[in-house]
Specification:
The structure holds two protein chains of two kinds.
Chain A lengths: L8 E2 L4 E5 L5 E5 L1 H7 L2 E5 L6 E2 L4 E7 L3 E5 L4 E6 L2 H4 L3 H4 L8 E5 L11 H9 L1
Antiparallel strand pairs in A: 1-2, 2-3, 3-9, 4-6, 5-8, 6-7, 8-9
Chain B lengths: L7 H6 L3 E5 L2 E6 L3 H10 L2 E4 L4 E6 L3 H8 L13 E7 L5 E11 L2 E6 L4 H12 L5 E5 L2 E7 L3 H6 L4 H7 L7 E4 L2 E4 L8 E7 L3 H10 L3 E2 L2 H10 L36 H10 L3 E8 L10 E4 L3 E11 L4 E9 L5 E6 L2 E8 L4 E2 L2 E2 L2
Parallel strand pairs in B: 3-13
Antiparallel strand pairs in B: 1-2, 3-9, 4-7, 4-8, 5-6, 6-7, 9-12, 10-11, 11-12, 14-17, 14-19, 15-16, 15-18, 16-17, 18-19, 20-21
Helix pairs in contact in B: 2-8
Classes of the chains: A alpha+beta, B alpha+beta.
Chain lengths: ~130, ~350
């Protein structure tokens, strides 16, 4: 059974979004996604300060099996990336919601937050 | 629901992630493919390879039959138990399969072929047998387990019977010993030392448990693939198939040209290929930039031409992406690999990256 924390938001392509107190958001991939991928061996992250649009392919997670695109769950600016993943991509497997975070964004269209899934809806999607 | 090997229950008990592999329900990993990979490089792991096909070739003309069927020459096998790696070619010189043949005596050979090619192999072998006094029969009595790693032999020996221990004592590489129903061969597909063992199917679970107790860890197909790739060993369907010449698949060493009066299937095709000139070669690639090489990526050799990767992965031992590629013969020391629309430089090396736990690149 995959872990789906109730305080996060999700999109169907298995990214999670955490709304921080300062209005920024942190993004990673879900426990379910890391289970599907298997051991993660390489993560390619977006450039800091780059502008991205909703649903852009902005990062790549490569596992022992295959490469998977990571999509922007919101439009906005990339303000930080998790550089630790360069040397320790396996953190995505061991700690998908904490140390395995991928990037932080400053959303430019806050209304897009309403389009995200809550934990219950995401849970339902992955159980189908 | 796929076919199940005699170890299936053992896999389920060990929490394997089961996937379909050529119609068989096989373990992909038992938690972490990477951990399993490292265990084989550093200690001892075991792989269920029971899905592979064992074929018994027996009869007065078993030897002339195999000398005609295979590109390598079984005449080289003089000592009982000695094994030989060979391609089985079609008349056009393409590779129907790669296999290992064990010599018992000149009227009795045991051949192990791939699982994914079972039906066409058996049909081809039967068809070619019609002109020889020989029987070609699949043997389904065995479960097969590969135990691999620097400690594999020692740990396996500790669970064998006294008679079996004596039979395998000092056994050479590419030799097999037949003892008390077990056929124990010092062969493998990982670049490490170890055994591939045929066990009577009804003793599979018991043997598995003994090995677990001796500290041998179950390993899945995922690790098997990254290990063989680091070792630079071909995978049928990736590096070669019926449309690929062994001369363009690093299999030149498996073709025996002498004595010249031996004919074998595919020989005349290979000779005319040599006369025209071999266009491509199979090389190893070590990625110099970021990303991961996968199969079927475009490879660009500047000023020479283009090729394609046949396999690729992130090497768990080297912590760099490696691959195997078929490229034009004149390709030099560096190429560009097209990875997800970006060109990434790669060093061209001999396709042997890791052997006996040591990095070679």
């Amino acid at each position: 059974m995959s872990n789906v924390p109730s305080d996060l938001k999700y999109i169907s392509s298995h990214e999670w979004v955490r709304e921080e107190d300062d209005g920024t958001v942190t993004i990673g991939i879900t426990d379910h996604a890391q289970e599907l991928l298997g051991d993660v061996v390489y993560v390619e992250l977006p450039d800091v300060d780059s502008e991205v649009a909703l649903e852009d392919e902005i990062a790549v997670v490569e596992s022992v099996k295959a490469a998977s695109d990571i999509y922007a769950p919101l439009s906005g600016t990339i303000i930080a990336v998790n550089e630790d993943l360069e040397d320790a991509p396996e953190t995505v497997n061991s700690s998908p919601y904490d140390d395995g975070w991928m990037f932080k964004m400053q959303p430019s269209e806050p209304s897009e937050l309403e389009g995200l899934l809550d934990a219950e809806s995401y849970q339902n999607e992955i159980e189908d | 629901m796929g076919l199940k090997t005699p170890f299936y229950d053992s896999h389920v008990k060990a929490n394997a992630k089961i996937v379909d592999f050529g119609g068989w329900d096989m373990p992909l990993h038992y938690g972490s493919q990477l951990e399993e990979h490292h265990i084989v490089r550093q200690d001892a792991g075991m792989f269920d390879v029971s899905h592979m096909t064992v074929v018994e070739v027996k009869g007065a003309e078993a030897k002339p039959y195999l000398r005609y069927l295979l590109a390598n020459d079984v005449e080289k096998l003089q000592e009982s138990g000695k094994a030989l790696y060979s391609g089985m070619l079609n008349h056009e010189g393409g590779v129907i399969d790669d296999l290992i043949v064990y010599f018992i005596d000149s009227s009795n050979y045991r051949v192990v072929v791939n699982a994914s090619t079972r039906e066409k192999d058996l049909a081809w072998m039967a068809e070619q047998a019609s002109n020889f006094e020989v029987s070609v029969t699949e043997n389904t009595d065995f479960a097969m387990l590969a135990v691999q790693g620097p400690n594999a032999i020692e740990k396996t020996n500790s669970v064998l019977s006294k008679a079996q221990q004596e039979a395998v004592a000092g056994i050479g590489v590419f030799f097999a010993a037949d003892s008390e129903g077990y056929f124990i061969a010092r062969t493998g597909y990982t670049g490490e030392d170890g055994y591939e063992i045929m066990v009577p199917a009804d003793q599979a679970g018991e043997f598995w448990n003994k090995l677990v107790d001796a500290g041998v860890r179950p390993c899945g197909l995922g690790a098997r693939d990254t290990l063989r790739l680091e070792a630079g060993m071909n995978l049928y369907g990736n590096e070669m198939d019926e449309t690929v010449s062994p001369l363009e698949a690093n299999m030149g060493w498996t073709i025996t040209w002498t004595p010249e009066d031996r004919d074998f299937i595919g020989k005349s095709a290979l000779l005319s290929q040599k006369e025209v000139g071999i266009k491509n070669k199979l090389v190893g690639l070590v990625l110099q930039g970021k990303g991961v090489i996968r199969s079927h990526m475009k490879v660009i050799a500047e000023g020479v031409g283009e090729g394609e990767t046949t396999s690729g992965t992130m090497s768990p031992t080297l912590k760099q992406s490696i691959g195997i590629a078929r490229v034009p013969k004149a390709t030099g020391e560096t190429v560009m690999v097209e990875i997800r629309k970006k060109l990434v430089p790669a060093k061209v090396v001999k396709a042997t990256f890791v052997r006996m736990g040591k990095a070679l690149v």
